[in-house]
What we know:
The chain is mainly α. The chain is built from 20 helices and six strands. The protein has a two-stranded antiparallel ribbon with strand order 1-2. Strand 1 (163-168) and strand 2 (171-177) form a beta hairpin. The radius of gyration is 31 Å and the shape is elongated.
Amino acid sequence: MTSLPPQPLSPLDGRYRSAVGSLGEHLSEAGLNRARVHVEIEWLIAQTDRGFFGTSPLPANQKAALRQVVTDFGQADIDELAALEATTRHDVKAVEYYVRRRLDDLGLEHIAELTHFAATSEDINNLSYAITVRDAVQQVWLPKFRAVIAALHELAVEHRDAAMLSRTHGQPATPSTMGKELAVFVYRLSRIAAQVEASEYLGKFSGATGTFSAHVVAAPDVSWPSVSQEFVESLGLSWNPLTTQIESHDWQAELYSRISHANRVLHNLATDIWTYISLGAFRQIPAPGATGSSTMPHKVNPIRFENAEANLELSSAVLDSLAATLVTSRLQRDLTDSSAQRNIGVGFGHSLLALDNIQRGLGEIDLDLAVLATDLDANWEVLGEAIQTVIRAEVVAGRSTIADPYAMLKELTRGKRVGATELAEFVNGLEIGDDAKQRLLALTPATYTGIASGLVDRLP
């Protein structure tokens, strides 16, 4: 048997690349290396702007040329870095040599020794990861997450008045509306979106053990913490003043826990929609030419929501592991975080793939009002709650002497099918005020939805 040509090992880079490829702009090895080059170049410019060691600020055209290295970073640069790393066996050192080559190309050899000056690899790495994760979240993941919330919001408003039988513990329960039930998910997900949007992305730039030791020896009169803070904040990050060799990664643990929380709420949404489809409440709109089953031609399977479930579980598994692993580093530094962080894109990729499936799935379902109405009409016993509650109010008001209304309705309805006729006969025989009796006689399962429709207006 001949060997296959090189193949992607992960389905994220194979079968599902079209859905998640945008994350590669940020969370790939190439995206990380581009960010590293960006940090190294900005550190060069920052040092010369301050005139360190007799240097002068670079002219605007030379700064622009250096920054153009980042803007134009492409396949040739990726290949060059790979070749350098094959020799250095050190990814960040390869980036340093790459930047030095660009300085030579631009006639800036005189500042070459300021490349990676007083920096440990983690000074470059932590800032680069913060930049790439921030941009991946803000430019890719959050817009897709918001698009799913918007699609749900639209469905919630559209179906706000669509009465449906609720099911608690899987059993018929007090009716609601489909719009209100979807609005619950909109509210939950919107809270998490706001938390993710408010996430803090921290960075450190303080040397081998976070003490600025090399910095102070080289330039004892410089206020290095101020320089560090200004530099980190110039990259759009928040400065962490107290670290070991590594930035402590607490912000990453917080962010990944939030994304994992979002995954789990989305998983709940997917299982609920799947169940509504199973019950017939939602019809699936067949895609032209699609096959539901290889042997049963009639099938239209809820594959969007099933695919989402699996990928949400995979995403949370990775992100939960990262959140647990990254907050621990032995003494002043160990390398477990280096290997772990290379899987950040995997965690986000599975979540993004799930979001894509949910968004598409929500556009491929249609509410079947007739099924909802039939379901409600077959379960008049759910009005037992309304009847016993009204009786209790009438007892308190002095218009009834019925003892233990709950037990009375339990005897009538528990585990039984009770129709409209039986309930009307029961209500007519009750010792309650006429107004209360007329309200109960007018009630149907379809109208026993409280203010469910109005609650949709509570959405953000």
